[in-house]
Specification:
By secondary structure, the protein is an alpha/beta fold. It has 2 domains: 187 residues, no CATH class; 220 residues, Rossmann fold, CATH 3.40.50.300. The chain has 18 helices and 10 strands. A 6-stranded mixed beta sheet has the order 6-7-8-4-9-10, sandwiched between helices. A hairpin with a 5-residue loop joins strand 9 and strand 10. The radius of gyration is 29 Å and the shape is elongated. The chain starts with a helix and ends with a helix.
Length: 446
Amino acid sequence: MQNDKTTLRDLSIFTSDGSGDVFALVDHTTTHAGRDMLRKHIQHPPDSYEKLKEVQEAIKFWAANVELWPKMILNGTLVMLDKFFESADNLSTPPTGITLLLNSYFQKLLHKQEYFYTRFSLSHLADFLNGCAQLANIADRTDVPALLKRELETIKEELKHRLTAPIAAITKETKYADLMQLDYRARRELKHTVHRLIDSYSRLDAWRSMAIATNVHGWIFPELLPASPVCLETAGLSHPLLKQPVSYDIAFEQDRNFLLLTGANMSGKTTFMRALGVGALLAHVGMGVPARAMRVSFLQGIITNMQVEDNILRGESYFFAEVQRMKQTAEKLLKREPHLVLMDELFKGTNVHDAYECTRAVMDGLLHHPNHLMIISTHLYEVAQQFKADNVRNKEILFYYFVTTMSTEGEYKFTYELKSGISDDRIGYRILQKEGVIDLLNRNAG
């Protein structure tokens, strides 16, 4: 799956300050290196159905076996190892002579800082190697999925280095002279081995993080399907960032891959589309999704058109920015591999007549791409009605709307309930009245 920065921003996967985003819900890594690996994995999900299935199986394993994770490797462990191997290039000669003859007491007395640093660094290296050995032992289980087994076997091979056993056996009773020899040899011989082990550990940390998030939030693993025929079915899907979310049931039929969404402003259209986008993205990184059930085809990518921004420095208007995003979308839809397309209230940067004509033209064009899943919301009631009246086109379109209840006194209430059909709710003026905007504007300045 390929997603650009616009899509990741529209779906609130990452935010500039790292708070209130989907990544924060998913991140249960134990190290900064694992967190970086997790971020890269979300930015660049598996690029084939087969690879995605393998990743999902690995994450499922960790979800069912969280107790197997080693406790001795912490973020400080990896930080210390980075510092330890940074100084490797400055080594010239091994410790000899009087340095090795002095016992721990005199070394501690004469070279206090070096003494403690050596013991501290090697204890972290020993912890890391022992933790990796604990992970490598998991490879011998019969229930380990293929991708995870390959990663664990890689760790096992790296641990065959001749220094692994003596360093892993270090204790508080290990003689300082032995530590000095191991310290010198480790810096010269283990640097690249440890860096490769850290890379493998970080990948496992990212997979385990997604497994923990799935368990903690009570999410379910979706059923992943090949790219064709295109399919997306959800039951009880909700937006993970909402404290009291409304759940949605939706199913795209094989010959009806286009959903036209209507409803009043603030009725829930954007949240619904984001919930679908987030659910699809989480499914394509191999982890659980916030739903009771989900079936989804392997998608080439998610394309959103939600928060288009103008560019004053380049002299680009909001409308032109919308057009450019639509052009990017059209280019991607020329590929046969399916995408999920989410378009929210198109052409807000122009007048109502232009918006109507442009939206209608775009919908006509999108219907020529049956290999993709498309959802478009509009506040233009007339557009929805026109396509509903077209006996040919309406058989290709799913019409849904969000309910707004109105009292006899003119009060409105959003139920966030998704129903089949078309909405004709128009409450913008009532909202202006309720918020006191009209009254304030009609007052004379004092």
